[in-house]
Write a structure and sequence with these properties.
Elements (H helix, E strand, L loop, with lengths): L24 H6 L3 H11 L23 E3 L5 E3 L5 E4 L10 E4 L11 E4 L5
Antiparallel strand pairs: 1-2, 2-3, 3-4, 4-5
């Protein structure tokens, strides 16, 4: 039987995000039993999975303090894949979505980005 766990803390703005899959150190500090939740989520989401090679519906990790480095421009860099993530400022795909550059180390730009929803899909 496959078990799916969804975290509840979006560290980019401190809000609770229903259904967002986020692996964050902040969870373990704010939620009782959060450390176990982070470990459980880590075990079901492949940290090295690249957005650009994922299929629609695949789950990928979203920016968090453990697996990402926050850049000076406010974007996040995945320590495992080198992908650059930025918070989606539009509301086209719903609140909490992200834009990811299509090449390793490239910022998301018009026509050269992939959108990831708040569920990490």
């Amino acid at each position: 039987m496959q078990e799916t766990i969804q975290a509840t803390k979006d560290i980019t703005n401190g809000d609770i995000t229903n259904g967002a899959i986020v692996i964050a150190g902040a969870i373990s500090k704010k939620i009782p039993g959060g450390k176990q939740l982070v470990d459980k989520i880590s075990s079901i989401v492949d940290k090295k999975k690249k957005v650009r090679t994922s299929k629609v519906g695949d789950k990928v990790i979203t920016p968090n303090d453990k697996d990402f480095t926050q850049l000076k421009n406010g974007n996040w860099k995945n320590k495992h894949t080198g992908e650059i993530w930025s918070k989606d400022k539009s509301n086209h795909y719903g609140e909490g979505s992200w834009k990811v550059g299509v090449k390793k180390g490239a910022n998301p730009k018009k026509g050269k980005k992939i959108t990831v929803d708040k569920l990490g899909k």
